[in-house]
Amino acid sequence: MSAEPIANPLGPVRGPTPPRRSGRLVPVLAFLLAVLCVSTVALTATLRSTVVSPGFYQAVLDEESAYDRLYSEVLVDPEISPVTRDLLAHLPVPEALVTSNIKVVLGPATVRALTDQQIDAVTGYLRGDRDELRLTVDLAPVLENLADLARVYFGDLVADVQGRDQPDFERFTADLAAGLDDLKEGRAPELPRLPLTEDQADRATDALLTAVPERQRTALRPEIEVALGEGDVATALAATAAAALSDGSRSAAADLRDILQDGTWDLTATLTAAGADLTALEQARDTIRFLTLLEVLALTLALAALVTLWFTGPAAPARRLMRLGQALACAGVLTAAVVLLARLITGGRLFGTPASWAPSVTSLVDDLQRNAVSQAVATGLGAALTGLVGGVLLTGAGWALLVRPDRMPTPTPTAVRTAAAGVACAALAGVLVVPPVFGPSAPRQCQGSSRLCDLRYDEAAYLTSHNAMSTTADRFIGPLQDPDITTQLNTGVRALQLDTYRWESPEDIAARLDSPEFTAEQRRLITGAVDKANPPREGLWLCHGVCRAGAIELVPALEDIGDWLRAHPTEIVTLIVQDDISPEDTEEAFNAAGLDDLLYTPDADPNAPWPTLEEMIDSGRRLVVFAEKADGPAPWYRNFYRYGMETPFAFRSPSEMTCAPHRGGTGKQLFLLNHFITNAGGSRLDAGRVNTRDRVLERTRACEAERGSPVTFIAVDYTTIGDALGAVNELNSRRTQDD
After folding, report:
1. What beta strand segments (E) does 368-494 contain?
2. Are 677 and 721 in contact (CB under 8 A)?
3. Which CATH number goes with the domain that contains 673?
4. What interhelical angle do 233-244 and 198-209 show, nearest 10?
5. Does residue 665 lie within any of the structural domains?
6. CB-based contact 667:645 (threshold 8 Å)
7. Which among 134, 195, 375, 567 is placed 20 to 30 Å from 114, CA to CA?
């Protein structure tokens, strides 16, 4: 019998089993997916923290000093003058004052607020927080300022016609009504004939033509010269008025009425009507929504890929750690490569500017684009670095376990898994969280700029309004400022020189009128007002020498300053008081105005270091008050000349200005530069000469070199004439760079 073969219980004998292709493929796919998804999370987080973040755009604008450059570069560009004329609604304002008046009508604070509104509207729409894109501009403050400006210049025109320092609007209205009645009856208005010499007629013609658009002056001049040469004032004024109020002014006003509804400008409708394509924003909104979903999906897949990579990795835990680390490091490298490639492709510019744009506008827009791209690149590289560092840590830990000395204790598998999961999750969280946390955001503001926060109070420069209460808006005789105090603060003034008084008796007036600041005509007008209908009033007032020449109540004015400070929590204001009332009365007035929580108390030692602007703002004590005479008893009410020094102030011409020591001597921490002309009162013409940016900077540097101390307060008449604010901003910019 043949023997039966014995069956092998283990089955047929086979050769070595080759590794399955699918077993190698899963770890590779998991590795690639982890790299791609982690990089996607980093890039989408970067886009989300820049493109749809209001703080990103605000940071870019602030870094490029965009608001300062708007006034110092753009609005002084001759090629932009048609725009500035439109912003002034074609008011007949002398060309030399246009840019200064822009600061009144459209002040820096207003521009910043309006810009922030549009940034919030656009980014909110892109994020999906708003269902529709609606860009609206609240023009109420602009219209109020425009009305104030029109009233100032209309008042000057009326006063010139009447031959007065202050306009008599009631008389002007009555004369105008009578003239209209004459016209209705077919009679020519009875305006006085005024014989003029040839020279007087020429000068009067020049004066009238300043109210006429420049393109019409040449054609209109002969008619006005002939009329004035014959003493026919009516014809000259009629011709001037017809040209000054021609279609430019009327159409601007009509356009303004058409686009405004309750003081609100619907910018979206205006852009659409002008042919602007807003579908790009709609497409961007859809893209942002997609990126948000993509980020969530990528984060989920990245976690799944990293888990898969761990469980399909080599048997040795150390090599699994290295595999995870390599995936995260590669993701960091890939993210950095994409970011840098995008930077290379864009060249730092997202779009080209049309050749028709003014050079100043092109320069500003290009700088903003480059800054925005640089900020976005820095944010993306930060996220990439997080992934790279996490990957390097894991790879290094795995390598250390592989080459550890024999005496080093071997970690348990559980400890290795825990460490790996912790570092991987931290790196993944980092690429997600780093962009919004450490990316650019709205910077901390101090006096309108993030760069000033680290300056001490005595290191900064402040535009100072000389006799700030003496304004055209408040009907002072011989005013030294145009807008009221609140508007001055809105246009960049940060220190106010105020004169406090009680209403004077007739005997007091006689003595005060001897001041060289009053002309003979002003003395006559004031005396007439005293004799007729201006009896003494009780209470405390802000006056300029003589309260009957103009006065505003002290406590309400202080309340306005307090309201402004509370509405602008990152600003500091200084008052330098020419005190003709007692310190006790002053303290009582500040208490009545409710300013106790805002008042800053200087160190009793005048040589002690001042705090930084940021420290003062954080404390809430942002109102510094000095007196020319008093020193206390309130601890916050200190004599200025203990802490500061000044230059002389009685200059009769620009050539007389010096840096010689005056009150306060030398060697003080605070330095007041009196930069105005007093020659029988203030002068707009002189203000136009000395308030230029170059003139202010030139004298400031000369006095700083002579005194060996930085100028703190630059006091000027007519702060809205010239560009003293631009000079102050330049000084502060340089001081932050030197700091």
Report:
1. 462-465
2. no
3. 3.20.20.190
4. 20
5. yes
6. yes
7. 375
Residue 483 domain-assigned (yes or no): yes
DSSP 693-735: HHHHHHHHHHHHHHHTS---EEEESSTTSS-HHHHHHHHHHHH
User: How far from chain centre, in Å, is Cα 499?
Assistant: 29
Q: Which residue has the tokens 């600061």?
A: 103
- Global pTM? 0.60
Q: Which two structure tokens, joined as six digits, stand for 121?
A: 């509207």
Pairing of strands 713-716, 264-266: unpaired
Three-state SS sequence of 34-71: HHHHHHHHHHHHHHHHHCCCHHHHHHHHHHCCHHHHHH
Distance of alpha carbon 676 from alpha carbon 724, whole angstroms = 11
Number of separate domains in the chain: 3
Q: Do 195 and 226 lie in a common domain?
A: yes
Task: Return the H-helix or E-strand segment holding 335.
Answer: helix 317-346
Pairing of strands 670-674, 713-716: parallel
Same domain flag for 369 and 490: no
Query: What domain range is 649 assigned to?
Result: 450-738
Over pLDDT 90: what percentage of the chain? 25
* Domain match, 295 and 374 both: yes
The whole-angstrom separation of Cα 676 and Cα 250 is 37
Residue where a domain terminates, one of 255, 275, 307: 255
Both 243 and 295 in one domain: the answer is no
82 within a domain of the structure (yes/no): no
- The closest of 460, 465, 448, 451 to 731, measured between CA atoms, is 460
- In this structure, are residues 457 and 426 in contact, taking their beta carbons and an 8 Å threshold? no
**Interatomic CA distance for residues 100 and 113, integer angstroms:** 19
The stretch 70-91 carries a mean pLDDT of: 67
Do 570 and 676 lie in a common domain? Answer: yes
Phi (first) and psi of residue 596, to 5 degrees: -55, -40
Looking at residue 392, its pLDDT comes to 82
- What pLDDT digit, counting tens, does each position of 466-495 carry? 999 998 888 787 789 988 999 899 888 999
Q: In angstroms, rounded to a whole number, what is the distance separating the alpha carbons of residues 205 and 198?
A: 10
pLDDT, tens only, 620-641: 999 999 999 999 899 999 999 9
- Please state at what angle helix 413-438 crosses helix 21-50, rounded to 10 degrees: 30
Indicate if 237 and 331 belong to the same structural domain: no
Same-domain pairing of 331 and 240: no
Tokens of 586: 């002053």
CA 225 from centroid of its chain's CA atoms:
46
